Each structure stands twice: as C-alpha cells, then as structure tokens.
Amino acid sequence: MKRLAALVLALVALLPAPLLADSARKMPLSYNVATFGGPGRDYTTLQAWEDATDNDLVAAGKGEVLLCYPDSAAYAQRVTISGAVTNASYFRVIRAAPGFERQVVLDYNGVLGSYDGTVLVTNENHVGLYDLSIRHHISTSASVNTKDIFIQGNTAGACRVVGCRLGPSVNTGSDMASAGQVYGDGRLVVADSVVAAYPEGYGIIQNNGQLYVLSSVFYGVNQTALYSQAATSIAVNCVLQGNGANFYGAAWLITTCKTDGTVSFVNAAAGDFHLSDTDASAKDHGTDLSSDAIFPFSDDMDGDLRPQGAAWDIGADEWKPGTAGMVTIPLF
Fold first, then answer.
1. Gap between the Cα atoms of 306 and 68, Å rounded
2. Which of 34, 85, 262, 263 has its CA 20 to 30 A from that of 13?
C-alpha cells in the first residue's frame, strides 16, 4: 500500500498544472517529494524536513512536498514553517499521503506560547496543509489561549488549510484551546475542512489580516466558531452547528452558510461529517466556487467533484450515493 501511494503521487507530479486546477489542494508547478513517518521514511520529524527545505525555492524552480504516513497512531510534534523564499508557483506543502487522508494525526502535547501552534506559519507565503488531523492537548500554568494553527506575516500569499480536521483539542491549564488564529498581517484560507470539539475554546480567531473560510464545518465549539476582531472576513458554504456562538464581529461577509441546526450528518458525535442520505438542508443549497475570484476549486473533503447534484452542497462533504464514512477522530 505504501509503495502504491508513493507511486500515485509521483505520477500526479508529472501531470501538467492545468489538470490540477480544479482541486482546492493547490500544488507547486514542479516539486520535490519526501516522506514523513516512522523508520524507513525520509524524515521522522516535521521540523527536520522544514529545516532541510528552508531554501530559495523560486531560484531552484522546485517546490517541496512532504507526504505524511500514519506509521504512528499520533505524532506528538509541532513545526514552524518560516524562511523559505516562495511564490505562487514554488512553495511548501505538508499533506497526508494518498489513501491516508486525516489518518495522519499531529497531536502536540508540549509547550505552546501565545503566538504559536502545533503548526506555526510565520513570514512564509503560499503554504499548503492538506488532509491532516491537527490538534493539541496540553497543560500550561500561564494564561495562554493555545491553538492548533497560528498564521502571521504571510502577506504575499495565504496559508491554505484544505481537507483537514482541526480538533479535538484541550488545554487543561488556566486558559483555552482553540483551532487557529490569524494574527497581524496573516492570510489564511480554510476549505473543505472540519473544526470540531473545542470544549472551552474558539474555532478560528482573526486579528486583522485576512480570513477566508469555504465549504467547511464548525461543530461543538464552546465559544465562538468564527471570530473576526477587525478586518472583513469571508465565509461561504459553511455549516455552523452546536457551537456556543457562530460568528463574532460585524465585518463578516456570509454567503449560503447554515446556522439553524438543521443539517443532518452521518454521525457527528463520532466525527463523521458526511451529509446523511436524508439531509434536505445542505444538499444542493450551496454557492458554486469553481470560478471564485480569490480561491476557485471544485472538489470536497474526500476529493469528490462538486457538484454531484443540481448545485453545490453546503459543508465539507459533497453528498453522493454510497459515500464511505470519513475517518473519525474520537475525543480523548
């Protein structure tokens, strides 16, 4: 299976860029591939790969892609992505290897500061985080709202979080655990993703910068699911359900989002956020983003083509008959 997955990605790498244009999982125009996991992989720590690829990718004419394998039930690791020279054609991507979507769990249990996360992207543009499960469970004596992802300083190109599962995360210290924060002049796009199970914290917090949330699910967030402190933020085709509050801030631009609690999932309590066969609230009620001016795409969390019916569905899943259950990430 591992050899087959690596072969599939190698073949995909040979495809011309236009054939990949429909996917939210944007890839570099040309790139090197390395693997992450247990013994036998190229890297056993995320930071070692980041350090080794912290180069001028534009001058080299090659992006860098790290394929992650679930050789461990969970990886108690974090990574700071910073310092490589990138542009819209050549950048860095960390993603689950094909066939292991959301089975690669980054579950950090060390120390996190206020401006930190399990994944910290600072002063690097066009970063991709695809099909991973990212969370943390820590205890800190300081009053720190800890986060799964923290984005800042990437003014020329957004960090793209696609097909990911953020949470469940827990901070047993004196503050909260939240999914993410966009700080200062950061830029973040979240698409086809699920943010779920934050018993005390927030979903994603925006402090200035830019936040663009598309076709995603926010479920079981104790505080506010999407919190915009200052600048305009955008949410399209999102399901917000079972949260303490859904939106904070008057600057939100909201299109075809469901907040009335009527969307039916296969098994939300077990972490399966596929639309159920009987759902009548989200199916065919979404906005077509295939020609979106900021982030055009036409696939869902499973890589299925949108739409399957008369129109796009709302949420991370585009329903089709016989959809297999999404890998569930149980609570601690």
1. 26
2. 85
- CATH number of the domain bearing residue 174: 2.160.20
Number of domains in the chain: 1
Each residue's pLDDT tens digit, 130-186: 999 999 998 887 889 999 999 999 999 999 999 999 999 999 888 999 999 999 889
pTM (2 d.p.): 0.91
Q: What range does the domain containing 18 cover?
A: 2-275
Residues 89-128 have pLDDT tens digits of 999 999 999 999 999 999 999 999 999 999 999 999 999 9
**Domain contains 179:** yes
Name the residue with tokens 């917000």.
240
The burial class, CB within 10 Å (0-12 / 13-18 / 19+), for 14 is: exposed
Pick the closest to residue 85 from 64, 56, 60, 61 (CA basis): 56
